Amino acid sequence: MNINVTLVGQMITFALLVWFTMKLVWPPVMRAMADRQKTIADGLAQAERAKSELELAHKKATEILREAREDATGVMAEAGKRAANVIEDAKNQARAESERLLAAARAEIELEAMRAKEQLRTAIADLAVAGAARILQKEVDKAQHGKLLDEIVTKL
Amino acid sequence: MSTEAASGNPATDYIIHHLTNLTVGQGFWTFHLDTLFFSSALGLTFFFLFRKVAVRATAGVPGGLQNFVEIMVEFADRQVKDSFHGRSELIAPLALTIFCWVFLWNFMDLVPVDLLPLIASWFGVPYLRVVPSTDMNATFGLSVSVLLLIVFYSFKIKGPVGYAKEFLTHPFGPYLFPANLVLNIVELLAKPLSLSLRLFGNLYAGEMIFILIALLPWWIQPLLSWPWAVFHILIITLQAFIFMVLTVVYLSMAHEDVH
């Protein structure tokens, strides 16, 4: 067994190697590994959060869709009611108009009839005067008998 | 081991040649140049490989090399977390260094036994032992360092008085302190001894088998060295792992107040 100064050399080499490893190798590698661990953990947490957020957004979207559908149904019903009203109004208006027109036509007809009667009366008076004149062979003086004539006309 | 006397028997000469270190100096001041060179080169290989990754370490998607380094680092870190209950900046990097370094030492055992010595001989290098863990200086260098750390941490955590008290009063109580002292010293010294001799013995024996296989006729060598090499892949990893785990356990014990 030849133990000699080589042993001391080996010890020095060993001490230097351990020291280098401790100072120059270990910290950066451990740091990189810790960093990566953190990055992965963060990523997973973020993914989880995004998932829950997505779920929330889904829920919200469904809610909004449902509300919109309800609104649309409401609007459609309203519109239907309003259209019915409009139609009803128009019908009423048309009926009123037609009645009004009918009344006006009737009044006109009556007026026309009155006027015709008046003319007829005048014509008959004239005729009666003419007839009477012919019968009396004498001119009936309109001015003289005007009052009488008017009485006759009124009686006709 | 380093008997350089040639016996005249070619097989014995071959084996002795393979078990002789390339040395400089005399007596205690002998340097095993091959052990120092290969262990330093392997240590630097380990260091620069890991340093390269550490410099460019990204928290994003890791590349292949970074993946490998991270697996090794995490492996060492987990071993330390499993069996070491104190808090220390040093222990985990220490465990990683021990595992990788010892593994690389042992890995040299899988290089064909004659390859590197042959290449070296072209450059006029007469002896070359390429596996640092078959040199007791290397294995004891590691385990003595571990012993020093055990003593250092014992003092640091328990204080000189606490450590002395533990030495004198455990496990038999204060009245049998001579027995306690002897037992504790034996226990303390058994740790580095067992650590380094286990590694040395395994790798020395493994190397020896490869050398013996290399003495056989060429056509039978692959039949034997291939299974042995495959088996050795397990051995070298296991030895590196055991060295690391025991170091962590010993240092953990040094951190605990109650023996």
What does this structure look like?
The complex is a heterodimer of chains A (156) and B (259). Chain A is mostly helical. Helices cover 93% and strands 0% of the residues of chain A. Chain A has one domain. Chain A contains 2 helices and no strands. Chain B has one domain. Chain B is built from 8 helices and 2 strands, in the order H-E-E-H-H-H-H-H-H-H. Chain B has a two-stranded antiparallel sheet with strand order 1-2. Chains A and B meet through helix 1 of A and strand 2, helix 2, helix 3, helix 4 and helix 6 of B.
Q: Could you name the ranges of chain B where pLDDT drops below 50 across 5 or more consecutive residues?
A: none
Structural class given helices, strands, pairing of chain A? mainly alpha
- Structural class of chain B comes to mainly alpha
Oligomer: heterodimer
What would the keywords be for this entry?
heterodimer; A: 156 residues; mainly alpha; 2 helices; 93% helix; rod-shaped; B: 259 residues; two-stranded antiparallel sheet
Mind sketching the topology for me?
The complex is a heterodimer of chains A (156) and B (259).
Chain A: H1 6-136, H2 142-155
Helix pairs in contact in A: 1-2
Chain B: H1 10-18, E1 23-24, E2 31-32, H2 33-56, H3 64-83, H4 91-107, H5 115-122, H6 136-169, H7 177-214, H8 221-255
Antiparallel strand pairs in B: 1-2
Concise summary:
With 156 residues, chain A is an all-alpha fold. Chain A has helices spanning 6-136, 142-155.
